[in-house]
Every structure is written in structure tokens, then in C-alpha cells.
């Protein structure tokens, strides 16, 4: 009786099987392909992705390891629609999900598949791990950081026409030189393709910084001098109004 009771107890307490990393990857990939990327094959994308990091020291994955991946699932872009962000992810995605006015890295196939995920490999194993992986800053060449660095490089290189970035006006330094936006994307904006960068400085009721903030001067200096620059302070309230009502893409700010 005791053995039966224990066995039953253990069985009942066992958690339902979790979706594996691969299953999440494939499921999200199918969703993305349904939306817009017809023709891509999720199994091919998965195996190309995996080859970048499986069986390798998770601190020795250079950005180039993902080049084959970006070849099978390239970043595509509509001119005038690129939206960059830094420390404003939630606002940006809440706004874009409703309005579809802009395209962010997470709207690309690979960006939507890998958003909020963590992965790495291990030497001597052919598995994908989702815990025990190096943190963003633990080592530069980790699988997650190298993916976003390479993806953001390609996303910024693809930008054309007018580009927009949402920065956070509720912090003292809205432009952070060491962020992905500051260190990877800004240097890749090419004046042959990008006409202007508009900073939308998103502010709460009592803003901490405005368009005259010193860090935004740094941004201007870092930007190719032939690219135009404009900064607008826009309240969070206004942005959610634009997201919920019929405010046209060109009329929110
Ligand atoms: O370092 P950040 O922001 O400036 O990076 C944001 C910037 C965006 O413009 C994106 O194009 O770089 C791109 N990007 C992503 O798309 C992305 N999705 C998820 C960079 N990082 C991304 N992540 C994760 O968010 C990643 O794990 C990294 O650590 C954060 C970056 O957030 P941030 O500092 O607000």
C-alpha cells in the first residue's frame, strides 16, 4: 500500500512535460511564416541555428557563427518603417502590435522566434540548454548576445528612408553608448540609405530627461553627419492613445 501510495503521489506531482526549446522555436517559426515569410522552412532554419552553438563552449560563440542563419532567414525591411528602441521595449511593442506602423527587430522572422529566449550549448553535448547559460555580460561571445548583436547589425544595415528610435525619457541617460542601439545599430546606419533619425523620447507625467539631454548630443555626434536628426518628447499617455484610437502612423508625433 505504501509503495502504491508513494508511486501515485510522485506520479500526480510530476509536472506536465514542458515544451522543449526546439518545440518553442519551431512553433514560433511556423507562426511567423504564416504571417509573412512563406517559403522558409522551419526545420532548415532550426538546424542552421543550432549549428551556431551546439557542442561549443558558450563563451566562444562569435557573432559570425550566426551568418549562415541570417542567410537562410534574411532580415527584410520596408523603407521608412525601421523602429529601434533602447530601454523602451514594452512601450514599443504595445504600440506596434496595435498600429503596425513600424517594423522592429522582433517583427522579423528570427527576432520573433528568439525574443525572450535563452539558449546555449556545452562542449561534448549535442543538446540545447536553457539554464546555466552565460549572462549577457558574463562574456562577450555568448550565444544570446552574439545573436542579438549580429541580428541588430543586419537590421540597422537594412534600414532605409526615415528611421525612428524610441528612447526612455524617464531615466537620466536616454542614450546609452554601450547598449545594442548605441554600440551596434547607430554605427551601422548608412547615410546612403537612411535620410533621417527621429528620436521619440517617451516620457511619463514627470519626465526625468528631455530632448536637450546631454546623452542625446552624444547620439547626434555618433550619427553619420549626413543623416538628419530630430527629437520629439512624447508622453506615454499620447502613445497609448495612438495605439488604441485611429491616429494615423504619421500623426502621433
Ligand atoms: O541594448 P538595447 O536595449 O539598446 O537594444 C535594443 C536594440 C533595438 O533597437 C533592437 O533592434 O537592439 C535590438 N535588440 C533587440 O531587438 C532585442 N530583442 C530582445 C537588442 N536586444 C534585444 N533583446 C534583448 O533585450 C537582449 O537580450 C538585450 O539584453 C536586451 C536589450 O535591451 P535594452 O538595453 O533595452
What's the topology here?
Elements lengths: L1 H12 L7 H15 L6 H9 L16 H6 L10 E4 L2 H11 L9 H6 L28 H16 L2 E8 L11 H9 L5 E10 L10 H9 L5 E8 H9 L9
Parallel strand pairs: 1-2, 2-3, 3-4
Helix pairs in contact: 5-10, 7-8
Bound molecules: N1-cyclic inosine 5'-diphosphoribose (N1C).
Features:
about 250 residues; alpha/beta; four-stranded parallel beta sheet; globular; binds N1-cyclic inosine 5'-diphosphoribose
Description of the structure:
- With 253 residues, the protein is of the alpha/beta class.
- 40% of the residues lie in helices and 12% in strands.
- It has ten helices and four strands, in the order H-H-H-H-E-H-H-H-E-H-E-H-E-H.
- The relative contact order is 0.12.
- N1-cyclic inosine 5'-diphosphoribose binds at residues 84-87, 89, 105-106, 111, 115, 136, 144, 148, 152, 155, 179-181, 185.
Write a concise synopsis of the structure shown.
This protein has 253 residues and is an alpha/beta fold. The protein has helices spanning 2-13, 21-35, 42-50, 67-72, 89-99, 109-114, 143-158, 180-188, 214-222, 236-244; strands at residues 83-86, 161-168, 194-203, 228-235. The protein has ten helices and four strands.
Q: List ligands, each type once.
A: N1-cyclic inosine 5'-diphosphoribose
Class by SSE composition: alpha/beta
Q: Measure the end-to-end span.
A: 71 Å
The global form is globular
- Helix count equals 10
Output mean pLDDT.
93
Rg over CA atoms: 21 Å
Oligomer: single chain
Sequence of secondary-structure elements = HHHHEHHHEHEHEH
Largest beta sheet: what is the strand line-up? 1-2-3-4
Low-confidence stretches: none
Q: How much beta, percentage-wise? A: 5-15%
Relative helix content? 40-55%
Extended strand count: 4
Q: Describe the main β-sheet briefly.
A: 4 strands, parallel
